[in-house]
Amino acid sequence: MKNFKYDIPTKVHFGKGKISVLGKEVSALGKSVLFVYGGSSIKKNGIYDQVMKQLDSMNVIELSGVEPNPKIESARKGAQLCRENNIDVVLAVGGGSVIDCSKLIAAAASYEGDAWDLVLDTSKIGNVLPIVSVLTLSATGSEMDGFAVISNMETNDKLGMGSYKLKPTVSILDPEYTYTVSAYQTAAGTADIMSHILESYFHKEDGAYIQDRFAESLLKTCIKYGIMAIEEPENYEARANLMWASSLAINGLISYGTDEGWTVHPMEHELSAYYDITHGVGLALLTPHWMEYVLSEDTVDKFVEYGVNVWNIDSSLEKYSIAKEAIEKTADYFRKMGIPMTLHEVGIGEENLEIMAENASKRGAKYGYVSLSKEDVLKIYKSAL
Ligand code: NZQ
Ligand code: ZN
């Protein structure tokens, strides 16, 4: 196990009715709030009214319309609003897209240049306004991590940025707020959580036993509750377990001490950059192909551990049979949740595969569990067509 520093600063309020602490938490941070949200979902399900009630004694400026795969233009607009209104706190109410956009807004508010500079170079981040999040979709873990992923459609870039300063100060996690998430977004969100866990779980560090067992229990949680939440959207137990899994998958708990580079995420980010597809769907359809591609004598033991401990495959079988069955079960689970499992089904053809493969390799896949060159990524993309 590698050395690490455990530091997870976000205060989490978890459970039914926890919106009741929002007013107190936000007012402790300042008087003027930028309330950031996405499309119409929070107005339809009543979360908007509950939030406004909590903010009634504060000066509230709204930024609505943050898109899935948030665009740089929204962050620029938000930063401008912060400067014009002397904003003290950025309040994100939504899924990963809204929270990510709010993180960049909070950082760009005090930056004199263009917000995109901070995505390209996080060392330029200076003061960051405090970020409070109210999560409405279990998926990215943005509610408890220091990452933000921002798209620039002019340049076909979807880039991740990471900084300790971007971690939310407070996050409110009420599983009931996810009851209205569609079956499609619930499936995509569950696949995203599973991918975050897998990206950490497939590492080469010896002796990270505790991280691996945590990861397996989180994977089992997603497998148990993903389909349940799709079939019974108002099942509290399912929504609660998925919500907490979303945070724990990426807040450092399972990656401290292993620190492996991620591979499938950089490959997926290129798909969303060029085609604006749903992040979790792209991950689900690539993951089994990535697994097949990296399965070798060097990696087979890790796949056996995954197959036996997560999918309960008979450990007495031959090791490659276990590995292949584990990969099949992974793909089957995504399929059962209703996720389209080919690139064609989500509208992606061969036209941009070369450039996407080149970007994916240099932006991360080269540094992952198994280093992938442009040619490797291209083969994986082609196998997913
Ligand atoms: O915009 P509204 O109307 O709110 O609708 C949203 C959106 O259309 C809807 N939704 C959210 N909560 C809902 C709801 N609909 C009904 N009821 C609710 N309670 O769901 C749609 C998708 O929302 P979005 O925020 O885009 O989804 P997600 O949370 O999956 O976020 C995806 C973004 O996060 C990035 C992804 O790349 C993508 O841009 N990621 C961020 C990470 C991070 N910060 O650590 C890591 C991830 O790997 C990921 O890359
Ligand atoms: Zn993800």
Automatic annotation (TrEMBL):
Domain Fe-containing alcohol dehydrogenase-like C-terminal per the UniProt entry, residue ranges: 186-385
Keyword Oxidoreductase: yes
A Gene Ontology molecular function term of the record: butanol dehydrogenase (NAD+) activity
Residues in the signal sequence: none
This protein's UniProt keywords: Oxidoreductase
Pfam families xref list: ADH_Fe_C (PF25137), Fe-ADH (PF00465)
Domain Alcohol dehydrogenase iron-type/glycerol dehydrogenase GldA residues, every copy: 9-175
One Gene Ontology term, aspect cellular component: cytosol
Listed Gene3D superfamilies: 3.40.50.1970, Dehydroquinate synthase-like - alpha domain (1.20.1090.10)
PANTHER family, per the entry: ALCOHOL DEHYDROGENASE YQHD
Descriptive protein name: Iron-containing alcohol dehydrogenase
Biological source species: Peptacetobacter hominis
Organism classification: Bacteria, Bacillati, Bacillota, Clostridia, Peptostreptococcales
